[in-house]
Amino acid sequence: MKKIYLLWVVFAYILAGCNGNTATHGEHEHEAHEHEEGHDHDHEGHDHEHEGHDHDHEHEEAGGGHAGEISFKKALAEAVGLQTHKVEPGTFTDVIKTSGRVMAAQGEESTVVATVPGVVTFGNLSFVDGTAVRKGQAILSLASSGLSDGNVAAKAKYAYENAKKEYERMEALIGDKIVSAKDFEQARLNYENAKVAWEAVAGKQTANGVSVVSPMNGYLKNLQVKEGDYVTVGQPLATISQNSRLVLRAEVSEKYYNYLPSVQSANFRTSYDNVTYKLSELRGRLLSYGKASDANSFYVPVTFEFDNKGAIIPGSFVEIYLLTAPMQNVISVPVSALIEEQGVYSVFVREHEEAYKKVPVTLGADNGSEVQILSGLKAGDEVVTAGAYQIKLASASNAIPAHTHNH
C-alpha cells in the first residue's frame, strides 16, 4: 500500500514539473516574439529617419548653397543696379562730428538800399528770395507821387536844372567882379549837390516810381520789404548774393580743442538734399580756428571757404565732419553699404555670383561718406555698396535653410 501511494506522489510531482516548463517556455516564446516585433518596428522608424535625412541632403544639393546664404539672381541684381566693392585696408581720416552753418563769403554779398523815400511797389515784377538777377536789373520801385512831399524824382530834376542855371550865370559874372567869390562858391556847391541827387534817380523813373536796381549779378536773398511799405533813404531793402564762394563755420565743443590744430579739411551734409559735400572737391581751404570759445557758448569756431558748385543755400544749417590726421590700415565701407536693424548694423557680403550673406559689423569713426569697420569684415570681402536693401527684402523669402541632422 505504501508503494502505491509513493508512486502517485512521484507521478504528480513529474506532471506538475512538466506543466511549469511548458508555461515558462510559452512565456519565453511570447517575449521573444514581442522583442522581434519591436526590433523590426524600431528598424522601420530608423529607416524612416534616414529617409528624411537623405531628403534634407537632396534639398540642400538642389538649393546649391550653405547655411545663412541668400539667393539673389544675377538678372535681378543687374535690374536693381547692385554694386559691390572688395574691401582692403587703407587710409582713413579720423573725424570730429559736429554742426554748423553755411554763410556767404566776404565780398560775395551786397545790400540794396532805398535811394529815395517812397512806397514800395513791385508792379509786374515777381521777385522772391532765390530769384536770379542781373546787374542793373530793376528789383522794385519806390513811388512818391502820392506823398505830401511830392514826386521826389521830379523835384530832383527841377532842383538840378535851377542850380545849373544859377551856377552858369554866376560863372559868367565872376570874371567881371559883379558877384562875390563867396556867392559863386555857394552856387557851385548847390549845383554839385543837385547834380548828385539827380543822377541818383536819372534814367530810373517809371510809371510806378523810381526803380531800385541790382548792383551785381547774383541771387535775391532776404527781401526785407513788401508791397505798400514806406521806406526812407538808405533803408535796406534786400541782399544780393553771388553764391560763388561760401564760408562753412563749424561749432566745435571745447573737449576737442586739442585736436583742432590737426584739422585739415571737412565734409558736410545738408538737410534739404541729403548729399555729402567734400571741401576737397570744392576748392575748399581752412581759414582759421578760434583760439577760445565765445563768451556766450561752449563752442570753438572753425571756418572754411569753398566754391559753391552745387545748390548750397547760404544761411542753412548743416552736419559737419571735420577731417583730422589720417589713420593707416583701416577697413572701411561706404555709408550706403550699411543696413540698420534696431541699432544693430550689418552689411551683405557676396559669397559667389548669386549668393550673399548678412554679416554684423561694429562701427568706428564716420566721416560722412565712409565708416570705419572695427570688426565683422576682413580684407578681400566683397561688400554690397548699392542695392543692400533689395537683398534685405529678398532675404525674408528665399533664405536657404540650414543643414539639419535629425535621426
Characterise this structure.
The chain is an alpha+beta fold. It has five helices and 25 strands. It has helices at residues 2-63, 74-79, 152-173, 181-201, 388-398, and strands at 69-71, 83-86, 90-104, 109-113, 118-121, 132-133, 138-143, 205-206, 209-213, 218-221, 230-231, 236-241, 245-253, 265-270, 276-278, 285-289, 299-307, 317-330, 332-334, 339-341, 344-352, 355-360, 362-366, 370-375, 382-386. Helix 3 packs antiparallel against helix 4 (181-201). The longest helix has 62 residues, at 2-63. The radius of gyration is 47 Å and the shape is elongated.
Provide key terms for this protein.
about 400 residues, seven-stranded antiparallel β-sheet, alpha+beta, about 30% helix, single chain, five-stranded antiparallel β-sheet, disordered C terminus
Helix and strand layout, with pairings?
Elements: H1 2-63, E1 69-71, H2 74-79, E2 83-86, E3 90-104, E4 109-113, E5 118-121, E6 132-133, E7 138-143, H3 152-173, H4 181-201, E8 205-206, E9 209-213, E10 218-221, E11 230-231, E12 236-241, E13 245-253, E14 265-270, E15 276-278, E16 285-289, E17 299-307, E18 317-330, E19 332-334, E20 339-341, E21 344-352, E22 355-360, E23 362-366, E24 370-375, E25 382-386, H5 388-398
Antiparallel strand pairs: 1-22, 2-25, 3-13, 3-18, 4-12, 5-7, 5-11, 6-10, 7-9, 8-9, 10-12, 13-17, 14-15, 14-18, 16-17, 19-24, 20-21, 21-22, 23-24
Helix pairs in contact: 3-4
